[in-house]
Amino acid sequence: MVELEKKDIKFIFRKRDEISNKGDFGYVGIMGGCMEYSGAVKLANLSSCALTSGAGVVRLIVPEEIANGVMPYLLEQTLFLMESKNGHMLFNKEKIDSALEKLKAIAIGMGWGKYDDNEKILDYILETKNIPVVIDADGLNTLAIMDKSILNKTKCKVILTPHLKEFERISGYDFQEIKRHPQELAIKFAKEYNVILLLKGHTTTVTDGKITYLIKKGCSGMATAGSGDVLSGILVGILGYNEANVLNIAAGAYLAGLAGELAQEELNDISMKASDTISKIPEAINEIRK
């Protein structure tokens, strides 16, 4: 296990070639939202976060019934509407195929809610696609009720981003045992299911079962709604122009934590919002580049 330092990830955020275009830095997708948890501003912030972290194009994939709520908050992002009913996504193979066309990576689950079609959508993506998939929030809750053997069969590179309670649900490990031995159990699970596991905590653990990084970045001001979504946005943004490996995922966790620390320094630990962390991503990247 290695504690990650700025010098380890500086090359990931290197200066870009002057002769570049958006396609060089990847099309990425963010799939989430439902009528109950539409969080229009939060979804827009999440997609903006992926752009700020370096992706070339971000496609926000949401149920068609919440489109009017989301659209006013989108500027540089693109919008893909999924067929929906009563405000939640419906399983439709053709729509999923179109939504994921050209994508280098996708993040799934933020504000998704708990619906039967979510399981069908996630299962179809894991069975038929071959791209990095960041699973967070309700995506993790969906995975928790699925047969996890699909993780050993999928061609996708799966990145899971649970906090301790979510890890208990997807792993079946006892919560108190996870608290006592977070790194050991994270490594065990990642190795067994061939995933990259980012286990959130005071010290965040990122492991693929072989290589493990510890990230001691972040602050109490990040204990607010939407901070986990910001992390997912950063991760999928980085995956637009980088390989899905454990170091690049650890770099995303470091960047999120550093941006949060910078936001807290400027504001305070009580008043911080998740969007304040997003606003400090450029400054955090400059700090890492020094």
Supply the key terms.
290 residues; UDP-N-acetylmuramoyl-L-alanine:D-glutamate ligase; 14 helices; 44% helix
Topology at a glance:
Elements: E1 2-3, H1 6-9, E2 27-31, H2 40-52, E3 57-63, H3 67-70, E4 78-82, E5 84-85, E6 88-89, H4 93-99, E7 103-108, H5 116-128, E8 132-135, H6 138-144, H7 150-153, E9 157-160, H8 164-171, H9 175-180, H10 182-193, E10 196-199, E11 204-207, E12 212-215, H11 227-239, H12 246-266, H13 274-279, H14 281-289
Parallel strand pairs: 1-12, 2-3, 2-7, 3-4, 7-8, 8-9, 9-10
Antiparallel strand pairs: 5-6, 10-11, 11-12
Provide structural commentary.
There is one protein chain. Helix content is 44%, strand content 17%. The protein has 290 residues and is α/β, with parallel strands linked by helices. The chain has a ten-stranded mixed β-sheet with strand order 1-12-11-10-9-8-7-2-3-4, sandwiched between helices. Strands 5-6 form a two-stranded antiparallel ribbon. Helix 2 (40-52) runs parallel beside helix 11 and helix 11 packs across helix 12 (246-266).
The number of strands is 12
Overall, the morphology is globular
CATH top level of the domain at 2-12 and 103-289?
Answer: Alpha Beta
Q: Measure the end-to-end span.
A: 25 Å
